[in-house]
Every structure is written in structure tokens, then in C-alpha cells.
Amino acid sequence: MIAGLGLYGLRDITLGALEYLRKADRVFLELYTSIVPGFRVEDLERLIGKRVTLVRRGDLEGPWLRELIGMAERELVVLLAPGDPFIATTHVSLRLEAAKRGVEVRVLPSPSVVNAVSASTGLDFYKFCRPVTIVRPSPGYFPSTPYRVLRENLARGLHTLFLLDLDVERGYAMTASEAVDVLLELERREGGDVLGEDALLVAVARATSHDEVVAAFTPTQRPDLGEPPHILVVPGLLNAVEAEALQTLAGAPADLVKRWHSKVRALVASGPFRQSNNDSRCARLI
Which CATH architecture has domain 113-282? Predict the structure, then answer.
């Protein structure tokens, strides 16, 4: 059994997952792929009435994986993962290896930032295009993919969700501010002109938690978001409801929303991915 832990504390564990956790012979938990605010292992152990064993990246991506599958051949084993175990955080290799050995693996999904981003920002889920991760640059490694994906999404009028680099085992979590700095440097290197002073950015910190922060800002601003995890969104074309949502939920100034929408509309009109007048996603534009 592979189950999602969700986004905050123990709140998002489903009744189905809880049933399996309580009757499992062994429970393993990985916390290296994301940060779950408000979560404590001891709270989980108290809830399910048994010991929980933490596993590292090296365990699930190394030889120990075969040992885990061997346990699952004889016992009921549950592996918990932050968020949803197959969205952004993926454990497909584990499932495939188990299938090769004839071990059935059931999956119990849970909320992840991919679906929470619409709840937090009010942006239409159907208008999010390819998500991409912004990684921390290092000497000799500064991938341009995030900026190129942003330009392609905007040329289609679509929203871009940026997942931010994370190394929990080393105590590092990229902030939205760092992510913006990376995008600005990539724009400088690529010779683009998307992220000017009228660019509308939206950051979400600790999505759906009791202290969630959703903030709209421009590249020259740096809102106080508090502790990670953070995500960053660059909106595409906005309908009237989305524009109102960004103003109400993220504090976006109305004039900034209008200027940004006009800029994106110009990018769509001049780009290679022109949308037809019959595209329902572009109806009721402000």
C-alpha cells in the first residue's frame, strides 16, 4: 500500500488510509520529498497505535527497495509519502518493481499542491499547462527549462505552476523569492522580456494550512511569506472570476491585473500558439 500524507499535519489522511495504517504489519514514512507543516511522527504513531519507521531517499532508491518489496510479499506494508505519492512526488519505480515480482500495490491518493493551487489562488485548474520545477543553480548547472516553459505557456495564454527545489535531508527549501531571482537571471541569459515591472506573480506558502499565505507581487517586490514550502505561479489569460479571485485572495492590485492580462493577450496574439475564437478557455476575458 502506498498512501499520501497530504499537505498539513494529519488532516489529510483519508479514512481508507487510516484503516490500512491501523491494521498494517509495518508502516514506513518518507519525508524527503516535501515539507508537511504541522506534522509530527509521534502524532501519527499515537493515531495509528504503532511505530512508524522513517526511510531516506537512499533507501527507496537503492538496494533496500528490494527488501521492502520482500516484506510486502509476506506482510501488509504501508508506505506514506508527503502530498500525493504520484503527483510531483513519484514512487512509480517502487510500484513497477513490485509488479514485476507479483506483489499487488494499492494506492490511496491525497491532496497535493497541484490541486491545492486552484483552491489557494482561485485560478482555473483547466488553464494550468505544463508545471516545472525551479532548481537551485550551481556552478556549471543552470537549466533554462523553467523560463522556456513559462514563455511557451504564456504564448498559449495558460498559467504556469512552478514547484520549487527541495532537499529536506540537507535542510534546504527554495523560497518563492529565490525562485523569482532564478527566473530573472534566466530571462537575462535568454534575452527575454516577459518579467518586466508589470509582471504578475503569485506565491503560495504552506498551501491550505491554517497559516497559508497567498500573495500577488511583481518581480521588484518580495512579500513576507514565512516558512516553506512555497510555490510560485505566473498567471496566463484571466477571465473575470480569476481576476477577481487574485484581487480578493492574493491582494493583487486591479491595475496590475489588467496590465498583465493585456501583456499576456499581446503575447498570445503574436505567438505561434494562437487560440481560436471558439476556445472556451478564453471566453469572458477582462
Answer: 2-Layer Sandwich (3.30)
